[in-house]
Amino acid sequence: MRIAICGSVKFADRLVEIYHKLEELGHEPLMHEDMFGLANGTAR
Length: 44
What we know:
2 strands; two-stranded parallel ribbon; alpha+beta; 2 helices
């Protein structure tokens, strides 16, 4: 199932965790690519 993840950049760390958990469960999560950079400190 495709699932769009939307949320505040304040919660980028948690959103990335949820993204990976959904992948593990066999879903196709969709999220803006900048969230990953914000979560690990490499945002543009």
